[in-house]
Design a protein that fits this description.
Strand order of the largest sheet: 1-2-3-4-6-5
Helix content: 40-55%
Number of helices: 10
Number of strands: 6
Strand content: 15-25%
Shape: elongated
Radius of gyration: 25 Å
Number of domains: 2
Order of helices and strands: HHHHHEEEHEEEHHHH
Structural class: alpha/beta
């Protein structure tokens, strides 16, 4: 029984599939060559393993995760933005089109805001996290919203944050040219409050979060091995350690790690 009234099951499955595919190169498996492409820091790995009391396999796995995550810039932003293509009265413009807004929400019956104002269109700038904009970027975004209000007196502009400090739909107060500015139709909104507004369901975002783990797993199961990386870094390090023939397995793998960064250094070079 599908429990989300605001998005069809097949649409969410398709959107999750597209989001995973956006990971692109990050889904490719890591071998030792790729792992050491930018030369890992052997000393850091030694400290990480020992201080965190982890096994070598865990330490290598964590480093691979760190490398993948470092290049993961906009993939989850894609998920948060593009899902609104499937939600009634919402529209996601092509990149750079229609003013460069992330989402546009229109309702013919009007949209009531917390202060009692009623508009028919909301233009959305979406951010993954509340602290991703510096003061300059915040100022430019606010000016963009001001200009939209000058062109359309029947709209509001929202800064929607996926990871906000708290659930909110408030007047956005920021600084432009060292001057504090705000406007009742320029608002700072947590993503749960935005879902509530566009779906009419106060717990819509919560309900999405509750089904998301199983939906992602279904997509991964359906797509099979094409989505699951098979990393071989630890096995290759074990093989190098065996070739060194050192007495302690732990020390042998440590030496294999050292050789990733120090193979030409005095004492390490054969």
């Amino acid at each position: 029984m599908w429990e989300l009234s605001f998005i069809e099951e097949d649409d969410l499955l398709e959107h999750v599939k597209h989001t995973i595919q956006k990971y692109g190169d990050k889904l490719k498996s890591f071998d030792l060559k790729r792992f050491n492409k930018n030369i890992v820091d052997p000393i850091k790995l030694i400290f990480d393993k020992t201080v965190y009391q982890a096994s070598w396999e865990e330490t290598i796995s964590n480093e691979i995760f760190r490398q993948r995550d470092k290049s993961n810039n906009n993939d989850i932003g894609y998920f948060h933005q593009r899902i609104f293509n499937y939600i009634a009265n919402c529209h996601v413009p092509d990149n750079g089109q229609e003013g460069g807004w992330d989402v546009i929400y229109r309702h013919p019956d009007g949209i009531a805001l917390p202060d009692g104002s009623v508009v028919h269109t909301i233009y959305v700038e979406m951010k993954n996290k509340h602290n991703t904009m510096n003061s300059s970027a915040a100022g430019k975004t606010f000016i963009k919203m001001q200009n939209q209000l000058l062109k359309d007196d029947d709209c509001a502009c929202f800064l929607v944050e996926a990871i906000a400090k708290k659930s909110q739909n408030i007047k956005w107060e920021t600084t432009v040219d060292k001057t504090s500015v705000s406007h009742k139709l320029i608002r700072r909104v947590s993503i749960d409050a935005f879902y509530a507004l566009v779906t009419g369901d106060d717990t819509a975002f919560y309900k999405l979060c509750m089904v998301l783990p199983s939906v992602i797993q279904r997509v991964v199961n359906t797509e099979g091995n094409s989505l699951i990386p098979h990393d071989t870094v630890f096995e290759e390090l074990q093989q190098k350690a065996r070739e060194m023939g050192m007495g302690s397995d732990d020390l042998a793998i440590a030496m294999s790690i050292y050789m990733l960064g120090f193979s030409s250094y005095k004492g390490f070079a054969s």
